[in-house]
Amino acid sequence: MKYDTLIRQALIIDGSNTPGYLADVGILAGRIEAIGDLATVAAAHEVDARGLVLAPGFVDVHTHDDTVVIRHPQMLPKLSQGVTTVIVGNCGISAAPVSLRGDPPDPMNLLGTRAAFTYPRFADYRAAVEGARPAVNVAALIGHTALRSNHMDDLQRTATPDEIAAMRGQLQESLEAGALGLSTGLAYASAFHANTDEVLQLSEELTAFGAVYTTHLRSEFEPVLEAMDEAFLIGRHAKAPVIISHLKCAGAGNWGRSPQLLASLEQAAKTHPVGCDCYPYAASSSTLDLKQVTDAFRITITWSTPHPEVGGRDLQDIAAQWGLSLMDTARRLQPAGAVYYGMDEADVRRILAHPLSMVGSDGLPEDPFPHPRLWGAFPRVLGHFSRDVGLFPLHTAVHKMTGLSAARFGLTERGEIRERYWADLVLFDPLRVRDVADFKEPQRAAQGIERVWVNGVLSYSEGQANGQRSGRFLARSGALGGGFSSL
Ligand SMILES: [Zn+2]
């Protein structure tokens, strides 16, 4: 047999943002061995893919799957969407390098309880991922808040020179061990008090590695443009590509400003590599943040440590039942998680459609009542936004979750269907693909995802993970790929 697997007569949408073409694909030893007319060749496994699209496996560039890839390595919420690589460590929070003195500070608690944090060095985390053999590939950022929590007794202030030096040492060691870059979550109270200079100094470690800077901006509300400027300043200082996490116009007073945000992004892109990720929903989700409590839009509680019984209920209902204000109710629920219906659909669409934006789920795998993006983000872009709404062609939707993403994060030999690239592949039905998870029933697998291969191994088919787990840890592989700086 010349190939391990032959996928016959699929419409190949190769991730490069060009229209599809019909061809056969031969897989051998984990890689794409041949693309073309392979009608006369046989293989151990053959798949008739007529009527289906074959795309590169999706790269979920924005996840909080840090510890779940080890504790629940089957990764069904992601695999069932066609995701074959997750990037962890976003928003300033990472599982490594972390040495906790108590419970994880907010929002590190999104990654699990204290028991989940057992990786004092990044190399320990990498070894744990390799040992767990998750079903998807894993690449990792180092969280600024995680570094702060390692070296500071009080997160409500900026770091001292000694603390910054200690954080820099840990960041450098982690980059040497294969981390992709640094992430910050400056909006969160645990990092908000870090001044720009603290991040600027830390970011200097990125330069020698060509590593990336990703950021959950200091504000996604009215001061969002100033927050973007801060991110660009840091990136230019470090000569590090900038990726703005889940770009959005948050809060009713901010709706309609997406053209300004995108103009700012385009302006910065003229002289520096910048981009953003976003998830395809007009609601956000995180820990319950008192600063975001408002009666201007709906807020749903997803979990609460003191009141687990209220998961899935609206904050307003709970407040009415308890006879308390929204703020007092929120205080009583903490620590807790929430979904905020705080975006405008037109802004979401404009940002999603922009050439500089990638798709990332921002799914929260620990949440007992998660935002549906955890199970639905990628099929929602393919089905709802591309096919049904017509926001962009299917090959552009695929590009935003494959080729663009791999180039931005420097994942070499992934993200496109090309000979000798790794065989991370998803076969889907372009007429049937759709997200099924919604805010009422958020834990439901998408429809229309027919088969998923990870490093050449068939890992998901007929609506089920088949128990094969062939994901790898993806270390930063040096200089970033092309296509970064151009619009
Ligand atoms: Zn975030």
Quote the distance from N terminus to C terminus. 43 Å
What share of residues is helical? 25-40%
Number of strands: 20
Could you say which overall geometry the principal axes of the C-alpha atoms support? globular
The main sheet comes to: 9 strands, mixed
Q: How would you state the average pLDDT, rounded?
A: 96
Strand content bin: 15-25%
Residue runs with pLDDT of under 50 for 5 or more positions: 479-487
Please give the CATH class of the largest domain: Alpha Beta
Alpha-beta content class = alpha/beta
Radius of gyration over C-alpha positions, nearest whole angstrom: 22 Å
How many structural domains are formed by the residues?
Answer: 2
CATH superfamily of the largest domain: Metal-dependent hydrolases
Tally of individual helices:
15
Q: Which ligands, by name, code or SMILES, are bound?
A: zinc ion
- What is the second-level CATH architecture of the largest domain? Alpha-Beta Barrel
User: Per CATH, what is the topology of the largest domain?
Assistant: TIM Barrel
Protein name: D-aminoacylase
Organism: Pseudomonas palleroniana
InterPro entries: Amidohydro_3 (IPR013108), D-aminoacylase_insert_dom_sf (IPR023100), Metal-dep_hydrolase_composite (IPR011059), Metal_Hydrolase (IPR032466), Metallo-dep_Hydrolases_sf (IPR050378)
Pfam families: Amidohydro_3
